[in-house]
Hints:
Elements: H1 2-47, E1 50-54, H2 64-79, E2 86-91, E3 103-107, H3 110-119, E4 128-131, H4 135-154, E5 159-163, E6 166-170, E7 176-182, E8 189-191
Antiparallel strand pairs: 1-3, 1-4, 2-3, 5-6, 6-7, 7-8
Amino acid sequence: xxxxxxxxxxxxxxxxxxxxxxxxxxxxxxxxxxxxxxxxxxxxxxxxxxxxxxxxxxxxxxxxxxxxxxxxxxxxxxxxxxxxxxxxxxxxxxxxxxxxxxxxxxxxxxxxxxxxxxxxxxxxxxxxxxxxxxxxxxxxxxxxxxxxxxxxxxxxxxxxxxxxxxxxxxxxxxxxxxxxxxxxxxxxxxxxxxxxxxxxxx
Length: 202
């Protein structure tokens, strides 16, 4: 009987230790998720004033000083904006004769970046300007754009706009009808009431 009781006590103690370890693991996992979210937010903050430009003429003798001067002149001629808005502009890849390298442009003020994003539709192709997004945000944006095409095919009478990690659906009068956002795994799109949309500038 004593042997049985000792075994029972040992099992109960083992269960308590397991429960304690599970709580500790759950707490550690929550902290990891919190840290990952913080890293994502910091990366978005670091990219907040940036855009990526595609299609601007390239050369093999460019350095960041020359690229910054070229971009500043281009923005001045295209949008009538002065020279003192660009902090730095750099090509993202090594020079290749068979393709034009994209440029990451960092603006001094967030205001100027936002104005460029509004006015970019005035540019003649093949010059394109897009927000500088992290890999996670690019994946989310790709999922949203794919879903947007599906929604347009299903109901072309509504207007659809991808904005701040969501698809905004409005009627012809501009009244919001529905919102969609990406799921946590970034691979599906659900109605906005089922998730919190990514706070990203796209």
